[in-house]
Amino acid sequence: MFWVLPFFLASPANTLMKRVMSKSGFIGMGALNNGAIKAVSEISSSVYILGLHYFGLKGGSWMIIKKIFNNNAIVAKDPHKQEFVVMGCGIGFKKSVGDEVAQDLIEKVFILKQKDASEKFKLLLEDVPSEYVSLCYDIIEYGKNSIEAPLSDYIYVTLTDHINNTLKMHDEGIRNTNPLIWEIKKLYPKEFGIGLKALEFIEDSVGKKLSEDEAANIALHLINAQANHPNHKVTDVAGQTQKIQDILNIIKYTYQLDLDEASVSFERFITHLRFFFQRIDKRKKTELEDDFLLRQIKAKYKRAYHCTLKIEKYLNMELSDEEKLYLTIHVHRVTERQTE
Questions:
Q1: Strand runs (DSSP E) across 210-273, as ranges?
Q2: For each of the chain's 340 residues, which pLDDT tens digit applies?
Q3: Burial class for 115, CB neighbours closer than 10 Å (0-12, 13-18, 19+)
Q4: Is residue 50 helix, strand or coil?
Q5: What's the Cα-to-Cα distance from 336 to each of 45, 161, 251, 271, 325, rounded to whole Å?
Q6: Rounded to whole angstroms, how far apart are CA atoms 332 and 299?
Q7: Count of CB atoms situated within 10 Å of the CB of 206
Q8: Which one in 8, 153, 192, 319 has a CA-CA gap of 20 to 30 Å to 21?
């Protein structure tokens, strides 16, 4: 994985102020003198401690430039041969490999931990303007704080690549449409809202106004980043979203009614379906210890159970009794007020 530490020159004494990001957002603010910064040490999947990683101490060495992408982005290494992507206005200007990094020009430092992601990220920097990289960082950190959920580190690669290509297409007069925009708005309102905010970031940063389709595209990246973890296969969020919409249509046609999309029952049903598809993707199958409850539900909610069987047929897979039980309960709850 990699961590992104933005630095700010806080005083004439070169005090470096920085935000240390956790998987769920800010851990806190820190200030260190003499060029010292705090590095992040992982102690569990969700808990982090702050350790000291020194640069530029008396008698020591500052980061050395290993590669120059452009005037504003470089790869640097410290005395321990740890590599960083360092960004700042003019940080690579008239510099050569082997020069020390000018610490007063540092704006952001990407501490690269996961080799695959870091190599892909460095490849991106060969072609992507540094202002776009910085823009995507702001969007991702806003998303982290809004969603309050861990995001895969690969979003720094995938979203940066996507935004770069989208802006190129915009310059060529090509609109990047999203056929699932309506479904994304309805099924992932928080992520879509972040996408809309991202459009504001983009317009403020580069002066280009993009359509709401792009907000939906950005939302898909955020959804993917929540679902994906290292060494796990990529979830087909677009396909999953389409399936959820198809299931909702099966319910609508079976009951001949429009669902109340503002209801708590609807929101809970959508959440259930999202986790349902995650279980399917992971081949995680659970069974009831006793089918008594399912038999009771089948008898009490016959129409809802019949609808569940239609959903099972549509999915073209055999669902466990437990999945049928909870699907039936959710179908009943999401339709009961309209059928009373």
A1: none
A2: 444 444 333 222 222 223 333 333 322 223 333 333 333 322 222 222 222 233 333 333 478 888 888 888 888 888 777 777 888 888 888 888 888 888 888 887 876 566 676 778 778 877 888 889 889 989 998 998 998 777 887 888 889 999 999 999 999 998 888 877 877 887 788 999 999 999 999 999 999 999 999 999 999 899 888 866 544 444 577 888 899 999 999 999 999 999 998 888 888 898 789 878 877 766 655 666 667 888 899 999 999 999 999 999 999 999 988 889 989 999 999 998 655 4
A3: exposed
A4: strand
A5: 41, 45, 12, 18, 16
A6: 13
A7: 15
A8: 192
Considering only CA atoms, which of 77, 99, 100, 74 is closest in space to residue 88?
74
Which residues, including other chains, have CB under 8 Å from residue 81's CB and lie 6 or more apart? none
